[in-house]
From TrEMBL:
Keyword Cell membrane among record annotations: yes
UniProt keywords, alphabetically: Cell inner membrane, Cell membrane, Membrane, Methylation, Transmembrane, Transmembrane helix
Lineage, top ranks: Bacteria, Pseudomonadati, Pseudomonadota, Betaproteobacteria, Burkholderiales
Post-translational modifications reported in the UniProt record: Cleaved by prepilin peptidase.
Taxonomic source organism: Roseateles oligotrophus
Similarity remark: Belongs to the GSP I family.
Encoding gene per record: gspI
Any Pfam family matching the protein: T2SSI
Cellular location(s): Cell inner membrane
Predominant location: membrane
Residues of the signal peptide: none
Family annotation (SUPFAM superfamilies): Pili subunits
Job description of the protein: Component of the type II secretion system required for the energy-dependent secretion of extracellular factors such as proteases and toxins from the periplasm.
Annotated ranges, domain Type II secretion system protein GspI C-terminal: 40-116
UniProt-recorded name of the protein: Type II secretion system protein I
Length: 119
C-alpha cells in the first residue's frame, strides 16, 4: 500500500491562522501609518501658519504692542484659527510673542514663541 504525502487538515488550519494573524498585524500597522501621515500634514500646516504670522510681525519692523489678536490662515485648502499673544519681558526693549494654533474644538494644536526687540 502506498502512503499519500501531504498536509493534514490541522496543519493547514494552523497555517491559515498564522497567515491571518500576520495580515491583521499588517493592516493595523498600515492604518497607524495613515493616521500618523494625516496628523503630520495637519501639524506641519499649523506650524507654517504660526511661522508665517511671526515672520509677518518681524517684517513689519514695528515693536509689537502688548495684547492678543486672532488670525486665520489657509494651508492645503483648510482653514486654521490662531492667536498671537504679545507679553512684556523684564527688559522693556523686548517682547515675548507666542503664536498658538487651535483645532475646531478649540484645543491647542501647536504653539511657537519668539522674542522681538525694538528696531
Amino acid at each position: 500500500m502506498t502512503r499519500q504525502r501531504g498536509f493534514t487538515l490541522i496543519e493547514v488550519l494552523v497555517a491559515l491562522v498564522i497567515v491571518a494573524i500576520a495580515l491583521t498585524a499588517g493592516i493595523k500597522a498600515a492604518g497607524a501609518l495613515t493616521l500618523n501621515a494625516g496628523r503630520l500634514r495637519t501639524i506641519s500646516a499649523a506650524q507654517w501658519c504660526a511661522e508665517n504670522q511671526l515672520t509677518e510681525l518681524r517684517l513689519s519692523k514695528q515693536f509689537p504692542s502688548v495684547g492678543d489678536s486672532d488670525f486665520t490662515c489657509e494651508q492645503f485648502g483648510e482653514s486654521y484659527k490662531g492667536q498671537i499673544m504679545v507679553r512684556p519681558t523684564p527688559n522693556p526693549s523686548f517682547r515675548r510673542v507666542d503664536a498658538a494654533i487651535r483645532d475646531e474644538a478649540g484645543n491647542q494644536m501647536l504653539s511657537l514663541s519668539t522674542i522681538m526687540g525694538r528696531y
